[in-house]
Amino acid sequence: MTLSIWRYAHLALAFVSTLFLVILSVTGVILAFDAVNEKMPSYRIEQIDDITLAACIPALQKVYPEIIELSVDHNQFVTIDATDADGGHVKAYIDPRNGKVLGPVVPKSEFIQWNIALHRSLFLKETGRIAVGVVSFLLFLITISGAVLILKRQQGVRHFFAKINRDFFSQYFHVVSGRLFLIPILVISLTGTYLFMVRIGVMNASEEEPVVSEQPADAAPLDKSKFPVFQKTRLADVEKVEFPLLEDDPEEYYVLKMRDKVLTVSQITGAVVEQAAFGKAIVWEKLSLDLHTGRTSVVWAIVLGFASLNILAFIYTGFVMTWKRTRTKIRNKFKAGNAEIVILVGTENGSTLFFANQIHQQLLADGKRSFLAEMNQYQPYPQAEHLLIFTSTYGLGSPPANATHFNSLVEKIKQQQQVAFSVIGFGSKAYSDFCAFANEVDQLLEKQPWATRYLGLHTVNDKSPEEFVKWVHAWSEHSLTALATAPAVYTTKQTGLRSLKVVEKTLVSADNATFKITLAPESRNGFQSGDLLAIYPASDSRERFYSIGRNDGMIQLMVKLYENGLGSGYLYQLEPNSKVKARIMPNPAFHFPQKAPAVVMIANGTGIAPFLGMVMDNRAGVPVSMYAGFRHDNELTAQYRQFAALQTEQNRLEMLHFAFSRGKEPQYVMDLITRDAAYFTALLATGGVIMICGSLRMQHDVEALLNTLCVSENGQCLDFYKARNQVLTDCY
């Protein structure tokens, strides 16, 4: 709960001040560049720290008969405002040792002055100054709350600079750069706030009462080079020296303005006749201005420039993180008390919720009573049969923000019936605490008397869809629930919707419920057979996936028409030349293996679609055999025979084997595999690849049979070949 408060505070402060921070950051970068640029060319004199007023003032008065003032700016460039021997006015950078002019004083450009005004007051005068000051303070609060979040993430100061778990670039950059620029941004925000408080009078910036010293009436005149105060005062410590208007007039004085005081000096005797110290507020104001602008140091100005630039990056990455965390909305069709499958999610940045929601939506589409919630919302589930836990690990082994109370809730709330549980952990193997919290939850549930293990703890490294579908395979086969096993379904980087034109569509018949639909994309590149097409029949979040067969640049789908089927019904009602919005999802895990010595394709029903496209694209002549199962031998299968004959002539297909479950001699694909058992085991033993596409039940039966054959003939289980990518599947 505490973590959530800090996070919401951090986000709320950033949201309120975003527009102002963008303006101040952009102008801050420009002004930091100007602070560096104004030091070039450098008019700073070497050993300026060794030059006293006693040495430079007499030397300058020999060159310039009338001097109005001598000033030293924050770059320690010396400027003179005077009249030379020819009566000409001089205002330039000089060498204080001999009065030599080094360069003209160039005023800031209109562009820089415009940025200064925008940065200080947003062109709104006093109102703008108040707004800038408030935003500076908000930036301070944002920085503090961000630092607290990092401390909580890293479990204290001790691990503050430890390695950061990388979920995605924006999150990683936000945290790492936050640590790197913590001090500069704190300085920017604090000094900006202080300068604002001085400007509006909250901080008293007045001088102290001057101290007046009486001069002795008989004080002897002194040469300026012998004035004690001039001999003690270095030019580098002075901001400005105002010269007497009339020489030898005892009522006219030198005025020395230093960083912390003002001295009034007699031009006759050199005595200090008045001294006024600046209040601490003025001293702090000058220091704050130096730190805020970087005007006294090139290195610090560059640091401030990068810090300002990084604030812009913070804004962008922060909102990317927020979008990723909130983009997947939890929508439940059933209440917790009615759910048969409960999915609980522990996520820090929203990526784990994406995986859980993909499973949740598929379960709902399959008619299951699925319920999705955060782990902190754990409660009694009186009708639950399955409990699925999807959780990441936060920081160095801690629970994510929405799972901090899960362990205590499990100990307190006992389910009243036996519930089968499965835990899926998400993390990165680059860190020693890989899936530590998932492991903790798995052990906790194993100890509960009401919980029965359904599958062992499964971990997913770096949000890998390929690793996640291994769990999907296992859970689907164990529960006989149809779930998408193509990694493309679970990739978080999704392409946008594309407009596809319906080119052709066949009709169903009494003995054939399958129809073919051909779609023409706007671009014929960027996809291949085995990729997936996602459609949205109801124009909502519900997706339906179909495996693509590529035919001369067209998308070819084989679809079985179901009564009241959402996806199949939608596609079947489309007419030629109509348009459909869909998303093409790359599925490289089910692309044709070009380097395989031989390939066997096993399909039933509509699963043949991608294989037809792969065969047509097999221009390299890789040996391919196809085993396909259907209910009836009808007009559609006759077309497949014609297709096979043509592809065989072109050396793209060796053989097509059919099995018909409703014919005179009922036969299944399993029977064909048993018949050719020696061929299948030899194929795998020699590096060949088996591809399976169709129903999940068919996949389960085929893999069980192949496993038995491989153990018997090759001495290896099927998992051995799966690990070597010799068994590829795309089943539902």
Automatic annotation (TrEMBL):
One Gene Ontology cellular component annotation held by this UniProt entry: cytosol
GO function terms (MF aspect): flavin adenine dinucleotide binding; FMN binding; NADPH-hemoprotein reductase activity
Pfam name, any one: PepSY_TM
Keywords: Flavoprotein, Membrane, Transmembrane, Transmembrane helix
EC number(s) stated in the UniProt entry for this protein: 1.6.2.4
Transmembrane parts of this sequence: 12-33, 130-151, 172-197, 298-323, 677-698
Lineage: Bacteria, Pseudomonadati, Bacteroidota, Cytophagia, Cytophagales
Record's protein name: NADPH--hemoprotein reductase
Enzyme class: oxidoreductase
Source domain of life: Bacteria
Matches recorded under InterPro entries: Cbr1-like_FAD-bd_dom, FAD-bd_FR_type, Flavodoxin/NO_synth, Flavoprotein-like_sf, FNR_nucleotide-bd, OxRdtase_FAD/NAD-bd, PepSY-ass_TM, Riboflavin_synthase-like_b-brl
Occurrences of domain Flavodoxin-like (ranges): 341-480
Residue ranges of every copy of the FAD-binding FR-type domain listed in the record: 495-593
